[in-house]
Amino acid sequence: MRIPLTWIREYTQFPAEATAEDLMAELVKVGLEEEDVHRPTDELAGPIVVGEVLEKIPEPQSNGKTINWCQVRVVPEGESQTLTHEGIDPSGVQGIVCGAHNFEVGDKVVVTLPGAVLPRDFRIAARKTYGHVSAGMIASVRELGIGEDHDGILVLSTLGLDPEPGTDAMELLGLYDSAAEINVTPDRGYAFSLRGIAREYSHATGTPFIDPAEQIQTDAAAGPGLEITLNDQDPIYGVQGCSRFVTRKVTGIDPQAPTPPWMASRLRLAGMRSISIAVDVSNYVMLELGQPNHCYDAAKLDGGIQVRRAAAGEKLVTLDEKERSLHVEDLVIADQAGPVGIAGVMGGARTEVDDTTSAVIVEAAHFDPISVSRSKRRHKLPSEASKRFERGVDPLLAPLAAQRVVDLLVELAGGTDAGELSDAGAPVLPEPILLEPALPEKLTGVSYTEEQIQQTLIAIGAEVTQSGDQLLVTPPSWRPDLTIPAALVEEIARLVGYDQIPSRLPVPPAGRGFSFSQQRRRSVYSGLAAAGFTEVLSYPFYSETANARFGRPEETEAPLPMLRLANPIASQQSTLRTTVLPGLLEALRRNVSRGFTDLALFEAGMVFLPKAQLGSATIPGLGAHPGEDVLADLDAGIPDQPLHIAAVLCGSEPAELPGAAGRRRDWADAIDAAEKVADLLRVQLEVVQGRHQAFHPGRTAELRLSGTRVGHAGELHPKVIEELDLPARTSVMELDLSALISAAPEQVSAAAFSTFPPTTQDVSLIVAQTLPAATLEATLAEGAGPLLEGIELFDVYAGEHIETGHKSLAYALRFRAEDRTLTAEEASEARASAVALASERHGAVQR
């Protein structure tokens, strides 16, 4: 909101010598935010004076253009020039070349003399052009920075002015005025007016203010005017869109009447351009009082006015010349021929006031903020009116604003008040609020007296009465945001002063530290990062195809249960993830596309697994605690959300260098990453041969915990790699981290270690090609007994001297006793027991 200083001084005791910065400094005290200062003199500098055209000689040029060689007097007749800047004629008559033709001898114009500066640092000096020395410039409104019209120069008679030559044109046009700009928060719509700002300045300084609304005298003798019908209930939400609709009529206006310079200057400083007298008066009253209003050409209206919801298929051409398809939820103003405006947003072109309008219907109404806001957003049509309506307008202002428009049109446009008044509906006023006198101190820590509380609330316009041991506060009509006691406390704190609130920091309670789950998660994330993995985050929104491919091992036509989004950010990402892998692989693909080829990434996040029941049939209302059965039903409809962790690897480790080829990462690195997670949580994973539709059929491990599958690891299927444009041999793993954390021991004790030396014996066994090495290893460990400290596979061989369909697996067995040094015989006996059990179970034969 921009506040011209000359305007605010009409309603407050703002000092004449004070600046826009001074005004903002006071308004900040009551919670308004300063934005900017607008000062025409920052870009304009004199001498800029009124001139009278004495002579105008057209001179055709060789380029087909005709210029005017003019003599312009820039001092009062009979006086000489007192300015001495180079190029200024001491006689007071300047010779000026002008390319415009919309003026005649005798016209009063604005002359920028040598030494003047115009916007965009355009400096005026005497220059030779078209065979003359042009000592100055006859200015247009665009050149002065006060308008957009560039069809010709500014002729002051068109503004109803006849000043004496030499008059300071900047003062005449209000260019010495300035404006302070403040930011208005959504809950304080009343501050979008000079009336509201003046009241806030009064609160900040303790000085009185003049309410412009109280200066308006309505016409008590006005008779009935247009027939107004309110038929505006929202068909979807049942909201009444218009609570009050007022019209007045003015006849005999002069549509060509100029807007007075003082009004045009104020509108310009407030951020609006001057258009025509009727439009300018309408905007001026809106800025003054905060009540949007609209002028219709009375001759173009067909019958009475109806405020209703739009019919299906209705269209409206708005004032911006665009045809808009109306929605059945749009609140419209219509006559017998159809809509003439979107209520509170923008009027229609059919009833627009133009250069031939002689009679207008003035409308001022009160519209529902939600209806206006929805229409504005639906049609992408922000306006000064909608900005105010959607924040709340004083419901008592409509007849006063309409009267103010009538008065100004009579005064400035030569109109006649037709004495017609239509007032449909009734204002809806704020409800009273019970305020406990102790509440302000409870919420702010400041000890306010009850007298101080009452005086502050009365100062904002509220009515305060005693109701037992509480205060009954009726907010003023212009404060629809005051609906609860806490809002009243905010007003008390704001007006008494935020600086009165003590800045004591609360003492934080003693922390309980991380929970067991948090500790384990952090341990896993830190461990993977220390191992060279980089953590990434991705959106949990996937396509159904991605969820179906990675969310289950088996390829089947049966649909995978998944949560579908009602309003997805993209149609191809319409479900919540059931696996972490697709988002992680997309992060890998994006990095590879940017030249990063050696990568190890991991991501942890929740997945969403629907249960048999999805959601709840009913949602409990507010204000009452739901019963246990309702809570149980709500909980049953929430999907399981376990935490998963996944890793993806590609390229070499370490990275390839000249003369030092790195080791290519493969499926074994993916399994190692899974085992690293298990080691960090002190749980034991069982790695067995597995299958997964998205993984390579021969390079896939199933990861089990106590016999239950908790994930997979291995190399992606070549077709998947090709389809997703990933590097060859990309390997991944994914684990149910929630399951692993649940199985993790809360306390870990260090195992006792023996001080006696170990003894190692090797064994090489020939077994069937299909027997997993892990299965044979587990059998050997079981058969070796308690003396076995460790077992490690160090060779796999299949080929010459090995029967077809078989392979040789070689293990190193390490034995140790806790209380003695083992003999070779004891170790050999344990080894023999391990071989015997392997032979019994798997038909293993020593090589």
From TrEMBL:
It is found in: Cytoplasm. Its main location: cytoplasm. Residues 754-847 form the FDX-ACB domain. It is an enzyme of class 6 (ligase). One of its GO terms (molecular function) is phenylalanine-tRNA ligase activity. SMART domains: B3_4, B5, FDX-ACB. Gene3D superfamilies: 3.30.56.10, Bira Bifunctional Protein, Domain 2, Ferrodoxin-fold anticodon-binding domain, Nucleic acid-binding proteins, Phenylalanyl-trna Synthetase, Chain B, domain 3. Residues 428-503 form the B5 domain. Residues 42-170 form the TRNA-binding domain. Binds 2 magnesium ions per tetramer. Its EC number is 6.1.1.20. Its cofactor is Mg(2+). Belongs to the phenylalanyl-tRNA synthetase beta subunit family. Type 1 subfamily. This is Phenylalanine--tRNA ligase beta subunit. It comes from Nesterenkonia lutea. The lineage of its organism: Bacteria, Bacillati, Actinomycetota, Actinomycetes, Micrococcales.
